[in-house]
Amino acid sequence: MSDGGVQFFEGVEKLLEIWFTNGRESNKHSDLRKIPRGKLESILKIVHCEIISFVNNDQIDAYVLSESSMFISKRRFILKTCGTTTPLMCLQPLLLLVEQYAGFTEVEDLFYSRKNYKRPELQIGPHQDFDQEVALLDALFPDGNAYCLGTMNKDCWYLYTLNPPRDSINNSIPDPDPDQTLEILMTDLDPDIMSIFTREECLNAAEATKKSGIDKIIPNMIVDDFLFEPCGYSMNGISKNVSKLAFSD
């Protein structure tokens, strides 16, 4: 979509995170990474994106996508996509694949979040409006809760979560997995710095990663990066040692 000769791309990312469990039963043999890659590709086709590259360690599979990233560990699924992608449309088929191939029977918790769009009219339903997104999620998860943080007529952050009772989680999982997430959003960046992420400035993704200093943000990472044509950059990083750690840009 162009406006005044300048092509527009919606940089706001939609973040979907789902934790799975078998309730009080053992999760020993259940694993989301058992889902075949072909089935994952069919899910991403619904979302309107595709896999570009892949790295993994003993704890996590990390995919660079044509629109951002996907991370899959034993019982957590993370999909973050930008542009006009439709991640919520893959929820129902994903839940079926999880039960069929991964062996999980319940959704323990779910988080869906995004910033407000710059051009919401360009999105594909149900992602044009948060009320539409909430309606779809409520149809699948009757106990969900929706929130808006910030001013609705300016910058704000939308969040949908199940907010399960903590007692039920502690009773069903002997040792809950530690989980910390830090998400940083940046706008109005210096054009000279942003030019690093163009083919005019850098020959390949590795050069952009080094010139921008991203390779120094978290040391000892396996970096999987991609430089788009004519501009745009995406990367995943997974730790060589602390394999729970994952990072995307």
Automatic annotation (TrEMBL):
<keyword id="KW-0949">S-adenosyl-L-methionine</keyword>
<keyword id="KW-0620">Polyamine biosynthesis</keyword>
<keyword id="KW-0068">Autocatalytic cleavage</keyword>
<comment type="pathway">
    <text>Amine and polyamine biosynthesis; S-adenosylmethioninamine biosynthesis; S-adenosylmethioninamine from S-adenosyl-L-methionine: step 1/1.</text>
</comment>
<dbReference type="GO" id="GO:0008295">
    <property type="term" value="P:spermidine biosynthetic process"/>
</dbReference>
<dbReference type="Pfam" id="PF01536">
    <property type="entry name" value="SAM_decarbox"/>
</dbReference>
<dbReference type="InterPro" id="IPR016067">
    <property type="entry name" value="S-AdoMet_deCO2ase_core"/>
</dbReference>
<keyword id="KW-0670">Pyruvate</keyword>
<comment type="similarity">
    <text>Belongs to the eukaryotic AdoMetDC family.</text>
</comment>
<dbReference type="InterPro" id="IPR001985">
    <property type="entry name" value="S-AdoMet_decarboxylase_euk"/>
</dbReference>
<dbReference type="InterPro" id="IPR048283">
    <property type="entry name" value="AdoMetDC-like"/>
</dbReference>
<dbReference type="InterPro" id="IPR018166">
    <property type="entry name" value="S-AdoMet_deCO2ase_CS"/>
</dbReference>
<protein>
    <recommendedName>
        <fullName>adenosylmethionine decarboxylase</fullName>
        <ecNumber>4.1.1.50</ecNumber>
    </recommendedName>
</protein>
<dbReference type="GO" id="GO:0005829">
    <property type="term" value="C:cytosol"/>
</dbReference>
<keyword id="KW-0704">Schiff base</keyword>
<dbReference type="GO" id="GO:0006597">
    <property type="term" value="P:spermine biosynthetic process"/>
</dbReference>
<keyword id="KW-0456">Lyase</keyword>
<dbReference type="GO" id="GO:0004014">
    <property type="term" value="F:adenosylmethionine decarboxylase activity"/>
</dbReference>
<keyword id="KW-0745">Spermidine biosynthesis</keyword>
<keyword id="KW-0210">Decarboxylase</keyword>
<keyword id="KW-0865">Zymogen</keyword>
